[in-house]
Amino acid sequence: MSQLDPATIMKQQVARAAVARVKSGTVVGLGSGSTAAFAIEYLGDRLKSGELTDIIGVPTSFQSEVLAKQFGIPLATPNDVDRIDVAIDGADEVDPQKNLIKGGGAAHTREKIVDCLAAEFIVVVDASKLVDRLGTTFLLPVEVLPMALEPVKRAIVALGGEPQLRMAVKKAGPVVTDQGNLVLDVKFPNGIDDPATLEKALNNIPGVLENGLFVGTTDCVLIGEIVDGEPQVRQM
Ligand SMILES: O=C(CO)[C@H](O)[C@H](O)COP(=O)(O)O
Protein backbone atom coordinates (compact mmCIF):
# COMPACT_ATOMS: atom_id res chain seq x y z
CA MET A 1 0.00 0.00 0.00
CA SER A 2 1.36 3.44 -0.96
CA GLN A 3 2.42 5.82 1.80
CA LEU A 4 1.57 8.81 -0.39
CA ASP A 5 -1.50 10.95 0.19
CA PRO A 6 -4.23 10.92 -2.52
CA ALA A 7 -3.40 14.46 -3.70
CA THR A 8 0.22 13.49 -4.40
CA ILE A 9 -0.84 10.29 -6.16
CA MET A 10 -3.19 12.29 -8.43
CA LYS A 11 -0.44 14.80 -9.24
CA GLN A 12 1.95 11.99 -10.13
CA GLN A 13 -0.61 10.18 -12.31
CA VAL A 14 -1.54 13.25 -14.26
CA ALA A 15 2.09 14.36 -14.70
CA ARG A 16 2.98 10.88 -15.98
CA ALA A 17 0.09 10.95 -18.47
CA ALA A 18 1.23 14.33 -19.83
CA VAL A 19 4.88 13.31 -20.15
CA ALA A 20 3.84 10.11 -21.98
CA ARG A 21 2.67 12.41 -24.82
CA VAL A 22 6.08 14.03 -25.32
CA LYS A 23 7.94 12.91 -28.45
CA SER A 24 11.69 12.80 -29.18
CA GLY A 25 13.18 15.81 -30.94
CA THR A 26 10.82 18.34 -29.37
CA VAL A 27 11.11 21.55 -27.39
CA VAL A 28 9.14 21.28 -24.14
CA GLY A 29 7.90 24.12 -21.93
CA LEU A 30 8.54 23.17 -18.30
CA GLY A 31 5.85 24.47 -15.94
CA SER A 32 6.11 25.47 -12.28
CA GLY A 33 4.49 24.21 -9.09
CA SER A 34 4.25 20.81 -7.45
CA THR A 35 2.41 18.99 -10.29
CA ALA A 36 4.70 20.36 -13.00
CA ALA A 37 7.66 19.33 -10.83
CA PHE A 38 6.61 15.67 -11.18
CA ALA A 39 6.35 16.18 -14.96
CA ILE A 40 9.93 17.51 -15.05
CA GLU A 41 11.12 14.53 -13.02
CA TYR A 42 9.36 12.02 -15.34
CA LEU A 43 10.64 13.79 -18.45
CA GLY A 44 14.15 13.43 -17.01
CA ASP A 45 13.48 9.73 -16.34
CA ARG A 46 12.39 9.13 -19.95
CA LEU A 47 15.50 10.93 -21.22
CA LYS A 48 17.79 9.01 -18.90
CA SER A 49 16.34 5.66 -19.93
CA GLY A 50 16.84 6.52 -23.61
CA GLU A 51 13.12 6.23 -24.31
CA LEU A 52 13.23 9.91 -25.37
CA THR A 53 16.10 11.65 -27.15
CA ASP A 54 16.89 15.15 -28.32
CA ILE A 55 14.66 17.07 -25.90
CA ILE A 56 15.16 20.74 -25.02
CA GLY A 57 13.34 22.17 -22.01
CA VAL A 58 12.28 25.80 -21.66
CA PRO A 59 11.77 26.53 -17.94
CA THR A 60 9.05 28.87 -16.65
CA SER A 61 10.73 29.71 -13.33
CA PHE A 62 13.89 29.40 -11.28
CA GLN A 63 12.20 26.36 -9.66
CA SER A 64 11.72 24.54 -12.97
CA GLU A 65 15.23 25.49 -14.13
CA VAL A 66 16.79 23.99 -10.99
CA LEU A 67 14.68 20.82 -11.26
CA ALA A 68 15.42 20.39 -14.97
CA LYS A 69 19.16 20.62 -14.28
CA GLN A 70 18.78 18.10 -11.46
CA PHE A 71 17.00 15.65 -13.81
CA GLY A 72 19.42 16.13 -16.71
CA ILE A 73 17.18 18.02 -19.15
CA PRO A 74 19.08 20.33 -21.55
CA LEU A 75 17.73 23.88 -21.27
CA ALA A 76 17.09 26.91 -23.45
CA THR A 77 15.30 30.23 -23.10
CA PRO A 78 12.48 31.41 -25.41
CA ASN A 79 15.11 33.56 -27.16
CA ASP A 80 17.17 30.49 -28.07
CA VAL A 81 14.47 28.43 -29.78
CA ASP A 82 12.34 29.00 -32.88
CA ARG A 83 9.37 27.07 -31.45
CA ILE A 84 8.03 25.32 -28.38
CA ASP A 85 6.23 22.12 -29.35
CA VAL A 86 4.45 21.35 -26.11
CA ALA A 87 4.22 22.91 -22.64
CA ILE A 88 3.12 21.05 -19.51
CA ASP A 89 2.03 23.20 -16.58
CA GLY A 90 -0.25 23.16 -13.54
CA ALA A 91 -3.06 25.56 -12.65
CA ASP A 92 -4.86 26.88 -9.59
CA GLU A 93 -8.34 26.99 -11.14
CA VAL A 94 -9.75 25.63 -14.42
CA ASP A 95 -13.20 26.63 -15.73
CA PRO A 96 -15.40 24.66 -18.19
CA GLN A 97 -13.97 26.69 -21.12
CA LYS A 98 -10.43 25.60 -20.06
CA ASN A 99 -9.60 29.15 -18.96
CA LEU A 100 -7.24 29.24 -15.99
CA ILE A 101 -6.04 31.09 -12.96
CA LYS A 102 -2.32 30.51 -12.47
CA GLY A 103 0.35 32.12 -10.34
CA GLY A 104 0.02 30.28 -7.04
CA GLY A 105 3.80 29.98 -7.25
CA ALA A 106 4.19 33.60 -8.43
CA ALA A 107 5.58 32.30 -11.74
CA HIS A 108 2.65 33.28 -14.00
CA THR A 109 4.54 35.90 -16.04
CA ARG A 110 7.13 33.48 -17.43
CA GLU A 111 4.54 30.70 -17.50
CA LYS A 112 2.30 32.78 -19.77
CA ILE A 113 5.19 33.52 -22.13
CA VAL A 114 6.22 29.87 -22.46
CA ASP A 115 2.73 28.29 -22.34
CA CYS A 116 1.35 30.71 -24.96
CA LEU A 117 4.28 30.05 -27.29
CA ALA A 118 3.69 26.29 -27.19
CA ALA A 119 1.97 24.67 -30.16
CA GLU A 120 0.21 22.46 -27.58
CA PHE A 121 -0.42 23.58 -24.00
CA ILE A 122 -1.30 20.70 -21.65
CA VAL A 123 -2.60 21.61 -18.19
CA VAL A 124 -2.14 19.06 -15.41
CA VAL A 125 -4.39 19.32 -12.34
CA ASP A 126 -6.26 17.26 -9.82
CA ALA A 127 -10.05 17.46 -9.77
CA SER A 128 -10.06 19.96 -6.87
CA LYS A 129 -8.92 22.67 -9.31
CA LEU A 130 -12.11 22.51 -11.43
CA VAL A 131 -14.52 25.42 -10.89
CA ASP A 132 -17.67 26.68 -12.62
CA ARG A 133 -16.48 30.28 -12.38
CA LEU A 134 -12.91 31.59 -12.06
CA GLY A 135 -12.01 33.53 -8.92
CA THR A 136 -14.28 31.57 -6.60
CA THR A 137 -11.73 29.39 -4.80
CA PHE A 138 -8.44 31.18 -5.56
CA LEU A 139 -7.37 34.85 -5.54
CA LEU A 140 -6.09 36.22 -8.85
CA PRO A 141 -2.30 36.88 -8.79
CA VAL A 142 -1.06 40.09 -10.40
CA GLU A 143 2.69 40.82 -10.74
CA VAL A 144 3.46 44.49 -10.06
CA LEU A 145 6.58 46.65 -10.29
CA PRO A 146 7.39 47.72 -6.70
CA MET A 147 7.52 51.47 -7.49
CA ALA A 148 3.93 51.33 -8.79
CA LEU A 149 2.41 49.24 -5.98
CA GLU A 150 0.02 51.83 -4.50
CA PRO A 151 -1.30 53.27 -7.80
CA VAL A 152 -1.83 49.73 -9.12
CA LYS A 153 -3.77 48.81 -5.97
CA ARG A 154 -6.05 51.83 -6.48
CA ALA A 155 -6.62 50.93 -10.14
CA ILE A 156 -7.51 47.35 -9.18
CA VAL A 157 -10.01 48.59 -6.57
CA ALA A 158 -11.59 50.72 -9.33
CA LEU A 159 -12.06 47.47 -11.32
CA GLY A 160 -13.95 45.92 -8.38
CA GLY A 161 -11.04 43.90 -6.96
CA GLU A 162 -9.72 43.67 -3.41
CA PRO A 163 -5.91 43.42 -3.65
CA GLN A 164 -3.64 42.12 -0.92
CA LEU A 165 0.14 42.00 -1.04
CA ARG A 166 1.42 38.40 -1.00
CA MET A 167 3.69 37.92 2.00
CA ALA A 168 6.56 35.46 2.12
CA VAL A 169 6.80 32.40 4.36
CA LYS A 170 10.22 31.86 5.96
CA LYS A 171 11.34 35.33 4.81
CA ALA A 172 10.46 38.68 6.33
CA GLY A 173 8.41 40.87 4.00
CA PRO A 174 6.66 40.27 0.69
CA VAL A 175 7.10 37.56 -1.92
CA VAL A 176 9.55 38.75 -4.60
CA THR A 177 9.12 37.17 -8.04
CA ASP A 178 11.88 35.74 -10.26
CA GLN A 179 11.81 39.16 -11.99
CA GLY A 180 12.24 41.09 -8.70
CA ASN A 181 8.63 42.28 -8.53
CA LEU A 182 5.73 42.00 -6.05
CA VAL A 183 2.49 40.00 -6.25
CA LEU A 184 -0.98 41.29 -5.43
CA ASP A 185 -3.55 38.54 -4.82
CA VAL A 186 -6.89 39.97 -5.85
CA LYS A 187 -10.28 38.90 -4.57
CA PHE A 188 -13.31 39.47 -6.78
CA PRO A 189 -16.19 39.07 -4.30
CA ASN A 190 -18.56 37.41 -6.80
CA GLY A 191 -15.91 35.66 -8.85
CA ILE A 192 -14.80 36.79 -12.32
CA ASP A 193 -17.59 37.62 -14.80
CA ASP A 194 -15.61 38.08 -17.98
CA PRO A 195 -12.07 36.63 -17.76
CA ALA A 196 -11.01 37.84 -21.23
CA THR A 197 -11.94 41.48 -20.54
CA LEU A 198 -10.45 41.43 -17.04
CA GLU A 199 -7.18 39.91 -18.28
CA LYS A 200 -6.73 42.82 -20.70
CA ALA A 201 -7.95 45.51 -18.25
CA LEU A 202 -5.47 44.43 -15.58
CA ASN A 203 -2.54 44.28 -18.00
CA ASN A 204 -3.47 47.77 -19.19
CA ILE A 205 -2.74 49.28 -15.75
CA PRO A 206 0.69 50.98 -15.84
CA GLY A 207 2.96 49.06 -13.47
CA VAL A 208 1.29 45.67 -13.96
CA LEU A 209 3.64 43.19 -15.57
CA GLU A 210 1.22 40.27 -15.97
CA ASN A 211 -1.81 38.72 -14.32
CA GLY A 212 -2.67 35.05 -13.74
CA LEU A 213 -5.68 34.79 -16.08
CA PHE A 214 -4.94 32.46 -19.00
CA VAL A 215 -7.84 32.85 -21.42
CA GLY A 216 -8.15 30.76 -24.59
CA THR A 217 -4.61 29.39 -24.30
CA THR A 218 -5.23 25.80 -23.09
CA ASP A 219 -5.41 22.95 -25.60
CA CYS A 220 -6.00 20.09 -23.22
CA VAL A 221 -6.57 19.60 -19.48
CA LEU A 222 -5.55 16.31 -17.90
CA ILE A 223 -7.40 15.78 -14.61
CA GLY A 224 -6.23 13.38 -11.94
CA GLU A 225 -8.91 11.92 -9.70
CA ILE A 226 -9.55 8.96 -7.45
CA VAL A 227 -12.49 6.84 -8.64
CA ASP A 228 -13.57 3.85 -6.52
CA GLY A 229 -10.26 4.08 -4.67
CA GLU A 230 -8.21 3.98 -7.90
CA PRO A 231 -6.27 6.93 -9.34
CA GLN A 232 -7.44 7.82 -12.84
CA VAL A 233 -6.74 10.47 -15.46
CA ARG A 234 -9.40 11.96 -17.68
CA GLN A 235 -9.12 14.59 -20.38
CA MET A 236 -11.09 17.81 -20.80
O1 LIG B 1 0.76 28.65 -11.60
C1 LIG B 1 1.55 28.02 -10.94
C2 LIG B 1 2.80 28.61 -10.38
O2 LIG B 1 2.86 29.98 -10.62
C3 LIG B 1 1.30 26.59 -10.65
O3 LIG B 1 1.25 25.88 -11.85
C4 LIG B 1 -0.01 26.48 -9.91
O4 LIG B 1 0.09 27.25 -8.72
C5 LIG B 1 -0.37 25.03 -9.56
O5 LIG B 1 0.58 24.52 -8.67
P1 LIG B 1 0.41 23.08 -8.02
O6 LIG B 1 0.57 22.07 -9.10
O7 LIG B 1 1.51 23.03 -6.97
O8 LIG B 1 -0.97 23.03 -7.38
Describe what you observe in this structure:
- One of its GO terms (molecular function) is ribose-5-phosphate isomerase activity.
- It comes from Limnothrix redekei LRLZ20PSL1.
- Homodimer.
- It is a single chain.
- This protein has 236 residues and is α/β, with parallel strands linked by helices.
- 28% of the residues lie in helices and 26% in strands.
- It has six helices and 13 strands.
- Strands 2-1-3-6-12-13 form a six-stranded mixed sheet. A four-stranded antiparallel sheet has the order 8-9-7-10.
- β4 and β5 form a beta hairpin.
- α2 runs parallel beside α3.
- It is globular and about 55 Å long.
- The two termini are 30 Å apart.
- The structure holds ribulose-5-phosphate (5RP).
- Ribulose-5-phosphate is lined by residues 31-36, 89-92, 102-108, 111.
Question: How many individual helices?
Answer: 6
- Which small molecules are bound? ribulose-5-phosphate
- Level of helix content? 25-40%
Q: Strands of the largest sheet, in order across it?
A: 2-1-3-6-12-13
Helix-strand layout with pairing:
Layout: H1 6-19, E1 27-30, H2 34-48, E2 56-59, H3 62-70, E3 84-89, E4 93-94, E5 100-101, H4 108-117, E6 118-126, E7 140-144, H5 149-158, E8 162-165, E9 182-187, H6 195-203, E10 208-211, E11 213-214, E12 220-227, E13 230-235
Parallel strand pairs: 1-2, 1-3, 3-6, 6-12
Antiparallel strand pairs: 4-5, 5-11, 7-9, 7-10, 8-9, 12-13
The protein binds ribulose-5-phosphate.
Describe this protein with a few key phrases.
4-stranded antiparallel β-sheet, binds ribulose-5-phosphate, 236 residues, 13 strands, 6 helices, globular
